[in-house]
Each structure stands twice: as C-alpha cells, then as structure tokens.
Amino acid sequence: MSDPILQIDNLNVRFKGKRTVHAINDLSLKLMPGETLALLGESGSGKSVTLKTLLRLLPEKRTGLDGSISFDGTDIMTLSGKRLRSYRGGDVSMVFQEPALALDPVYTVGDQIAEAVMRHKGVSKSEAMATALDMLTRVRIPSPERRLKNYPHELSGGMRQRVMIALALACRPRLLLADEPTTALDATVQIQILLLLRELQREFGMAVIFVTHDIGVAVEISERIAVMYAGQIIEEGTTREVIADPQHPYTQGLLAANLHDVAKGTRLDAIPGAPPSLETRPDACSFAPRCPLALPACRAELPPVRTPGPRRRVACLRAGETIAAE
Amino acid sequence: MSATDMPTRTKAPLLSVRELKKHFPIRGGILGRQQAVVQAVDGVSFEVAAGETLGIVGESGCGKSTTAKLLIGLTQMDDGDIVLDGQRLGPDLSLKALRRDIQMVFQDSYASLNPRMTIADSVAFGARVQGLDDPQGRAHRLMARVGLDPDRFGGRYPHELSGGQRQRVNIARALAMSPKVVVLDEAVSALDKSVEAQVLNLLADLREEFGLTYIFISHDLNVVRYISDRILVMYLGEVVEVAPVDNIWETPAHPYTRSLFSAMPSMDPDNRTTKPPLSGDPPNPIDPPSGCRFHTRCPMASEVCKRKHPVLGRMAQGSPHWVACHLHDPASGHPKAVEEAPA
Lengths: 326, 343
Description:
By secondary structure, chain A is an alpha/beta fold. Helix content of chain A is 33%, strand content 23%. Chains A and B meet through helix 7, helix 8, helix 9, helix 10 and helix 11 of A and helix 7 and helix 8 of B.
C-alpha cells in the first residue's frame, strides 16, 4: 500500500486567553491519496479547528499546538514563509461554509480565481484567466464567459459555492478541505453540490476531508467517516461500517437522532445533556456523563481504543454493546 | 386522543387563512421609484384544526417565513383574511388579541431574547404586558416544565445559556401566553442533532399536555415528517400541495414535491444519489415565471404549463390531498394529465 498523503499524530490544540479551551485532544488520523473522509460531529467538537490547524490558520500567539502533522512527508508544523504560502492553496486548499464571506466582494470571480493561479503556477494573466474559465465550466456554471466578469453579489448561493469550489481546485490541490460547504444551501442545491464534488474528486484524484454535522451528507460524499466528540475521534471506519454497525454509544445516538425513517409519534432516543465545555483536558471518557452505558471505569480513566478491524477504531470501554441491549 | 384521529372534517378549523398576499416593492434610482415587486406570498390559503400540527416546507425564498410573520402581524399583509376560532382579524379580533393567541418561536434563539433581561423576566414579560394573572408564577411553572430549574436559571442572562437551553426559554415564553396556536419557524434548525431530538420530544409532550396546535416550518423534511399531521409545500410564494403526512410521503403528487423529497440524502452507502432531482437554484421571486411557477424546472412541463396557472384542487372528490398541478386536472389540456375519474 502506498504512503498516506496526510498523517496526524497525537495532535493537541489549546486556545489560551481569559479561559483556556482544550479544543483538540490527542487526535490521530491517517488519510490515503484520493480518499474521501467525512469528519462528523456537533458544534464545538473540533471539526473546523482540525481543518484550520491543517492549513495553519490558527492565531499563533494564542494557540498552544503540539503533535505532528505530515503532508506527503513534509512536516506542516514547522513550515513558514514562502513554503507555507505555496502549501496553502497550492497543495491543500479549502472550501468554506459561507462563500459570500470567503469571496472578496470587490473583485470579479474571474480575477479571484486567476490571482490564485498566477500566484501558485507563475503563469501570465491571460493564461490564468483561461484556467479560470475552464474551472467555471467544470463546476457547471451556465454561460461561464459571462460569469467570469461577475462580482460575488451577482451570483446566487449555489453559484457562489460553485465558484468557491472552482477557486479551491484551480491549482489542482492534492488535498481538499471542505468545511460544511453545503450547510447554508437548500436541499435541492446541496445534492447538486455534493454530486459535483464527488465527480471532481474522481476526476482530479485528490483526497478530501469533508466536515459536516449531517450524517446524510456524510453518507452521500464519503468513503470513510471519523466521528468527533470533545476534540477527539471516538469512532472511525468505512462509511458502510459506521452506518451499519456503529459501535460507540455517541455514534448510535447520533444515528437515532437523524430521524431518518422514524415512525411518527414514537419517542426519540435523544442523548441527554450537552457536550462538555473542555476547559480542562479530558482525563476520562468525555461522553460518560451523557452515556447510557457508562460504568464507573468510564469516569475514572480515558477509554481504551479498540480496533475491531483494519483502519477501524472505537474509543469506548463498552464498544459494540448497543443501547437497546440494556 | 392524538391529533391524527381527530375528525377534522366535522370540526370548524381553529385557524383559517384565506388568500394571504404580501408583495414587497423594490425601490431604486434617485427618486426611489418602485422598480419591481417581490411576490413573497401570493394567495396562500390553508386551515389548521385544533390539536393538529401543520408542517410547512419549501426552499429558501418560497415564502414560508413571510407566511409565519403575516400570521402574527409582524409583517402587514396586503390582502387576505385570518380567522382564528371563528373570529376574523380586524372586525372581531384585535391585533393584540391575535398576538396573544398565536405565539411564535424563531430560529435564532439568541437574537429573539432581550440580552439585558434575565430569563425569568423574559418569560414573564409577555404575560405581564397582556395583563394575564400571576406572570411571575407562570414563568416559574413553565420554566420548570421545559426542563430549566427556575431557581438555577431564572436569574441568568441569555448569553449564559446554551443554544438548546435558550430555545427552551423561547418555548416557555411562547407558552406563557396560553396560546391557541404556536408557530415554530425553523425552531430546531440551528440546534445540534442530539439537542434537536431533546427539543422535539419536549414539543411533542407539550402538545399532548396543553392541547397545542403547531405550525411547524422547517427545511428539514425528516423533522417535518416526524412531527406533522399534514404537510404543506410552498414554491415561490404559492401553495403547490397539501396533504396528510402519510399520503404526501407515499404518493407525492406535485413534481416539485417529488423533487424535494428525492433531494434528501439517501442514508444508504450502497445506494447513493446519482442524479440531482432539480438543476439550478430556485428562481427569483421578483419576477416569477408565467403560468405554473414551477414550469421552468419541471421535468413534466408542457405547453399549457407556461400559459395557464394551475389552481389548488383536491386529487379526487373528498380527498384530503390537494395539489396545484395540471397533471392532476383532467380538463387542463396537459397531454399527460390524469383521465377523468369514473363517476
């Protein structure tokens, strides 16, 4: 098997300030070239922080970082200056949730895409514009020649997200980070964007990390799913494994709360309580206070990471036992 | 008795909305002349029976939220009638009384609470303004009922609560007025899935306990299906289909409803969606298409759809399933229209 394109080992991210937040705690993750991974979790679980750390976008003075991240053999944590700039946007790029905020309102979309291409590929303006046009065509924007000269406000939400994708892919990154790119869109537009991303991923052969809180979206887009809770990955496996055989009680609860095919009038198996505030570094299972299966041992020490299969893992003392069995 | 077995035919509806209309003028130029009109809500009619939950779905810009705002007079309607419990807004029912009897819970739990008021004061405020007895006591009882200990949370401010807790406060505040109808406009959409399930359980319990009638607006079809007795589908300011939840789920009649349903993620890794049901974004409500407003995106569109505006009618005589589509009108002239049902 080939080498992973991305390897994160024991990553810790801590925000310092008036109060400390332990946003990421001992996170390890491996991604193979061309693989699509969905990072699934609720707000505050550390999904977006993970992506920002990968691009080194976090404010350095106020962030405590340790652990290692290696992209295609290069250590990301020590990059700086020119090499960091060429890494960001060249090797790895990102699509954000709100394209209206991520695009610059005072430049046309053609100029914005061309700027990125000129910066990373060192080509002339006219060549870069040709690439921009090609990208707008690939993301299926109708009449792309005309749209090239549009400003972001002249486009609808779905169009803007297509432009955002065209911008992110213009330099042919080997890894695309997508932070809830369809959350702000209508369901009818969301499915169009998901299918487009799936198709471009196949065509360009890039690896994708897709952050989402929506299990349905994760199933549509990804081969693998990693579930996050309180800054840790608590379960990982292929999409099929995680959906058909969720082993962590939190994953089981999330699936039940999705309401897919839940009979009307039945009570929902809601997970009680709310996620922890992460002001201290977890020294026991973070989910134990909400867990229907928690044992005294769960509150005393960090849960063991079980590996029921190759590249499958669950961080739970009682992995595999279902809530229904109680 | 659950809301579903309630014979809605024999009872007068609790809330009846007729030909609701709201057009927003767009002004521009130096003189601020009217340049165009957004037809946000254009002739929307529906009825809700006591104890029933009506779900309203549609894409952004279809007029769901404008309809909600018109119901409580937050936006003034251009035309139409609202009849609550037999009393017509205007001649029989004052706006103040309407706003007491129809309460609303909004999507943004933080923006809808006064940041300078404690939770207990916010919950009691409406009851106090409306002159209801014992506002403070009501507030305490309802906070306890929605799962917020009044002694612990009553003195706190909105920023000290989580999103799920704030939405519980908003629900308590709505219930403090002893309303007849509660409009929930994307009330659970901003919550995390696990918290959303808790709030949905709470809403179901409260409906049972206080005999509430809900109008539940959401873009999440799974949630709407779970909580509603009937579903109303809107497209560009119009109602295109209304039916009991099982009917519409099993046999969606309008091509738009079918597309909307098939845009839902499949939840089956072996059977993923391969073709988008609709292309492009919803058209602009400023200049809606002629005839049937959906004809520009409709896979079944024919000549007649461009010319003739379909009216909302029953699928069959006495059917609770209503649809506005030429395909279901034998007399429409659509080549693929249904045959006249045998008498």
